[in-house]
């Protein structure tokens, strides 16, 4: 597949992206960057980029769409897909598929629910998924990086070591989640190994263009950029469904209401979204709301589905 970067105003999505960027420019409040990871706190909340990738790899973009961003929890979608591809439904014995209604780093449900996290997109669930991927491959973060490079066509993608170190230095909550689940037998690798893999995973940097392309397999019903199959079309449907119901934490209902697409946010300010059978999107703006979702990112996706009529509903 040829990956083409297009920004001509005659293209299908470009006028819509230009209009959204102009509207976002006038937004008064843009939220605040994540400050619990000091390396992310310095980001300017007024940065904004958005990319749309069509099924054939044609990409449209606006603003900071080629600027690398910290992927953070966006990576949870790709690790989930890789584990399902490698190990099938066995994963669902270790992690649920229900919205948690709690913050992404919450501990409270885990004890009531015997160390089984509610879903793969809260931190506890993502740790279980990364643990499985590490057991399957021997190198969870490396496998993820290879996948993102292949799907985006960008061989330069890498983890940011400063961000990974910053996360490790402030990672007590993730360590607590990992050890607690290990006490229930739900983690197979040593917790320090798992945390190292998880922080390397979260600190991968990629642009909106890279991430819109890398998400393409979910719009192509499981087919990768090179035409091979990663997931069955059923599995792709299932991943999209979990994104819709759980991808934006305790704001998933509001996100579905406003945007009407499967989406996944990260505290780096990125959001990926899927229009199955049509296109994928990635938007970035580092200012977050109190639930950890990009303020301008959600607004931009809401405008996209409103202006184009493209949604799953
Ligand atoms: O686990 C953490 O704290 C981060 N590395 C990732 C969290 C994240 O992006 C949650 N998203 N909104």
Automatic annotation (TrEMBL):
GO terms for molecular function: glutaminase activity. It comes from the Bacteria. Keywords: Acetylation, Hydrolase. InterPro entries: Beta-lactam/transpept-like (IPR012338), Glutaminase (IPR015868). Its EC number is 3.5.1.2. Substrate binds at residues 73, 123, 167, 174, 198, 249, 267. It holds the Pfam family Glutaminase. It catalyses: L-glutamine + H2O = L-glutamate + NH4(+). Belongs to the glutaminase family. NCBIfam families: Gln_ase (TIGR03814), PRK00971.1-2 (NF002133). PANTHER family: GLUTAMINASE. HAMAP family: Glutaminase. Homotetramer. This is Glutaminase. It comes from Streptomyces ureilyticus.
